[in-house]
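Continuing the batch. This is chain 6 of the set; chains 1 through 5 are on the previous pages. Same settings as before, nothing changed between runs. Recording input and output for traceability.
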Amino acid sequence: MTTQTNLVDLREKLFEQAIVKARSNFLTFVKLLIPSLIADFKMGKHIELISEKLQCLEDGSVKRLMVFLPPRSSKSVLCSKMFPAWYMGRHASSEILSVSHSDQLASDFGRSVRDLVNNDIYRRIFPNTTLRADVRAAGKWQTQQNGVYIAAGVHSQIAGRGCHVAILDDVMSEEDAFSEAGRRYIKEWYPAGLRTRLMPDGNIVIINTRYHEDDLCGWLLAMEEKRKKEDVFRDDDPDDPEIEGWEVIKIPAWLDEESAELLELPVGSSYFPEWKPTEILRKDELEIKSQNGTKYWQSLFMQDPTPEEGGIIKKHWFQMWDFMEEPPDCEFVVQTYDTAFSVKSTADYSVIQTWGIFQKITVDSAGVERLIPSLILLSNRRERLEYPELRKAAQEMYDKYNPDVLIIEKKASGQSLIQDMRRAGLPVMEYNPDKDKVSRVNASTPILEAGRVWVPDKPFAQELILEAATFPNAAYDDQVDAMVMAVLYLKESWRVDHPLDAYLIDDLEETKERRKRIGYWKF
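Output for chain 6:
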């Protein structure tokens, strides 16, 4: 009897120690209370990682957090249910805003958080955080300490009060993610509807199903990335939301090198072996791909809405030119323009690309040296511009690269530029395509597949490659349009009708006397 009593006392003592620790340690809080939300809960290393980052969000060492994991990984339980309850316990007078794509989903989260705060174990952990009896609806409840929790759908009117923590859990439905209008709405809502509600020094956590590469998270990360690129974007873009640096937890179902290192598990293994061992996860993959397609698996389970190879153009077709090496001597330089007149954050971009045409020496199967007319990307300027700024940018790029010809698509946004550049005496060629974009891209693929398009190992080139590899499903295709103009010009103006066509070196000796250009990449 004494032994049994001692065990009970020890268990109660350890439990009390855990209660005390849970007040300051989120993972301990999770271990104590998550069984009330998930009956068959299993601990995984990704849960420890998410808990660690949410702890950092509370202490201020992380201000912006994105969480991407496969379905049923407990990410919403941790971020949208347990974290706001724990945060409210530590900051009983705080204001928390939870937003989802529908009012119903948001209310479900709010109900779970409210019930946690009313849980007996929670009250032992945070005895001073108590609910008001008169304001306790699932979508809006308050604490006796004047803390407020509000849950709302993304299309709802958010109350005028601010928030210390904003939790965005699947603010885009699958339908909205694949709708251009849906993506445009969320990009306008985030800076105007969400960011303006955030208190100074407030925190944001986004839990997102990556249906589309240009969803909210993809857009925010792209905005952040563009700040890092030299000589491509202006530093004072007035339409950018404030960029503060996002901490990203990206865990695919099959671990890549980065995620394997984070979880301290083998590369290629299951992200959650305690619940999804290799054989079960492999079976799930086959079933999901057969029922929903590879893209569905890539997006929801691999956190990669952009398949590596899936479009008309393949990434490996692009030839990489070592940026540290001198660029080739180009016989002819072409500038291509895909234009749009707007600086709105949701508008299309204007793109100015500079391409050099050079002769690449190859040896055929008979051992004969041949010169292959090829293209190399010299610059790729991509911005949202009103017409006066576009006209100025066009003149700057012409002065910088001295191209032999400027190819500008003859459309509403390009007509004014064509007229102005011609008045300035510049060598403008109108581009008036008679086929749709997909047909034009298909017409350019023989040159690309033959390895005749070279790009420098620079960020602006990688941006083009990514867009090309996902055409026609990518959010934008302005860079692809500009590239295709150059490829078709090479094909039609340099007697290149098929990848096997080439010219003997002896036939082109006279080209060596043509003007040379060097230093294209000295930005």
